[in-house]
Amino acid sequence: MKMDLLTSLYVFMLAGFIGFEVIRSITPLLHTPLMSLTNALDAIAVVGAIILAGEHRSTLSTVLGTIAIVAATSNVVGGFLITDRMLKMFKVSGPKK
Amino acid sequence: MTNWPGTDTFIEITYLIATALFILSLVWMRTPVTARRGVRAGEIGMALAIGGTLLNRGIVDYKWILIALVLGTIIGVPLGRVHMTAVPQRTALSHAFGALCVTLVGTAEFYLRAPNVPRFMMAVLSMEVILGGLTFTGSLMAAGKLQEYLPQRPITYKGQNFVNLAFLAVAIGVAAYLVHDPSHVHLFPLMLAIPLVFGVLMIIPIGGADMPTVISLLNSYAGLSAAAMGFVLDSKLLIIAGALDGASGFILSVNMSKAMNRSFTNVLFGAFGQEQVAGAAAVEAPPVRSATAEEAAAILGAANKVIVVPGYGMAVAQAQHKVRELYDALNKRGVDVKFAIHPVAGRMPGHMNVLLAEADIPYDKLLDMDEVNGDFPQADVALVIGANDVTNPAARSDASSPIYGMPILDVDKARTVMVIKRGMSPGFAGIDNPLYYLPKTLMLFGDAKSFVGSIVRELTGGGGHG
Lengths: 97, 466
Hints:
The complex is a heterodimer. Chain A is mainly alpha-helical. Chain A is flat. Chain B is an alpha/beta fold. A 6-stranded parallel beta sheet of chain B has the order 3-2-1-4-5-6. In chain B, helix 4 runs parallel beside helix 8. Chain B is globular and about 75 Å long.
């Protein structure tokens, strides 16, 4: 347990560093789609909700888990959809009009 | 359900691949050229991770999972298809959904484990529920303000910060007590309720112009609460996704606060919108020069280099498509047109870029503040459409101005400045803009959309092709 916790903290710290480095290099041009993308990725929390709802350990956990899946799934679907829609619109000026 | 040996390893491997794809997804977001590949990577990672999870042996009943997945998709699709002007409120709403998921799972996990919750577990659970709760209601409030269901005007009262911080302190106090002795199960609802109230109180004093910072901050909280959930469930994938999201929101909030010259503590404690300066004393306003669409068109048509400065007012007036027509008309005459984007223009980071890209303006013409500021002295015309405080030269020169020190677009260095504005009312910060009284400034009074439309008509209809 203690070891697991420590490993998790290491993972969190390293991911934080990667996040800082990667995000910092992203052009401000794309900050809106970036936010909707990270939002969709963050909805990976759905994985925890699925197990919670599926294990059926108590009525409360199943109900809360089910609502949680709905909330997270809407973020997954909506987030990826709108990010792609936005990115599709970004075009370079074509061969001189 | 599945019982072949190796399932657990298989699931772990799907998570591992998903993690790699998530990181790549962000790496590819660096430039518009590779960004869509980034979305694909994220989607594949997500599909893998969800698919892997469904194989989990602990799952005994798929009925509710499937119903919830379908229902979530039904809600998600329209949220992915909202109009581009509605993107800020959609984003706030999705932060609320993400936080709701995290808070509900945290609550369920607590009651499954209580009263024997190990201390560390209780600590991360508290963090998950507190951050999740305040992000949930805070984001709903933000979305409500952006959608204008709620007044955009900041609502402040005496001692507001004290009340807010007191709420937060009580929540943390309860959490600390629960960590000390998790058997007080009855305290958990209290720890859940206080952040929910705090989230509402936190957003009440926020005005429209502060939204970019607030949305970024809520983004960061949503990520951190998800990371906390990762600790509770011992899921590395979730810890990493949450950390990435948290880092992203954090960097954006720092960017936004820098662009408004607010200190970071100011941002952290949600003290935005506090600088309500006593309304610019009733000094009698100096005269301004105004011009008609015809005159504006003549000057623009004769220019070599025009820099357009869009702001939230352009979004409100839905003028971006007319702006695009203006861009085309000027381009046809050989005028070099660029767009200068201030980091806090609009209601969320990057908001203006998305609106202009939607109107088919090529992104290589959209320049960030640092890239474009050196260009103003060479510009014949700076055309300000619906932007105000971000062009206010007082931020550079007047130490008594509340926005003194805020980085601005140097529009006043252009040869001629044109400002499309409904009237002489001050901007959101309630500060008068000396830019409007400069001899080189022409005020174009009217609705942004129709005024730009008339300029375009003058440029295309009225003979004299270059």
